[in-house]
């Protein structure tokens, strides 16, 4: 009976695995196609039928990228910008989420709603006043100017508030206060170890968000020495002739660090989704 039940269970899950496999292949295909185009000449981009097998020009196309833009300088600028912003957002969002989840103060709910409402405002609406403010501060052509707008993350504050309110029991905090712990000591010694999975999730979200940001970085950064990858890759798009092999080669190598980051934090990312309470 157990074997029959197990066999029926396996047969019932086959369609699910088939659908998941097809969805995974469809999700991965754009990355595979980008890799194929990065190994082919520019003419292969418009070939009929489309080319689906890799070629042998990966190194040659990437060499063209290096000859055209300061790729490694732009990558270093991007890694520095994304890492700094991610760490700052994690600290600010966790502190704000801790305050909103575990403290009572006047205007708490109103302030939290105001923070959430900023998520529905299109970023393009604030482009001109933000540019004027950054220019008055003298932060144009600097990574500080490119990243300062991302330090306050409403989504991060919301996620941290929800995770802390559900995962950190009030009884544990009260016990720590009876032992003489300050609020910051409770945050550092109790809250932070518990919310590590949420840190990983928010870190991946913020890192990829800043890594893929183009409009604001393109607006603020004009000096090639301060270019991030997105701005540097945009300069490869010539108005008269686009070398798609070179362009997609640069995009491919710019995507590799994101894949590495995700694989490195994948365990914590999944843990934050499945974990509903502290052990």
From TrEMBL:
- Bilayer disposition of the protein: Multi-pass membrane protein
Q: Gene3D superfamilies annotated for this entry?
A: MetI-like
Any one of the GO BP annotations? transmembrane transport
Q: List keywords of the entry alphabetically.
A: Cell membrane, Membrane, Transmembrane, Transmembrane helix, Transport
Q: Does the keyword Phosphoprotein apply?
A: no
The entry's localization annotation reads: Cell membrane
Q: Which InterPro entries match?
A: MetI-like (IPR000515), MetI-like_sf (IPR035906)
What are the residue boundaries of the ABC transmembrane type-1 domain, all occurrences included? 75-265
Keyword presence, NAD: no
| TM stretches of this protein | 12-35, 74-98, 110-132, 144-164, 185-211, 244-265
- Which cellular components does GO assign to this protein? plasma membrane
The source's superkingdom equals Bacteria
Give the protein family: Belongs to the binding-protein-dependent transport system permease family.
For this entry, the protein name equals Sugar ABC transporter permease
Species this chain originates from? Halobacillus mangrovi
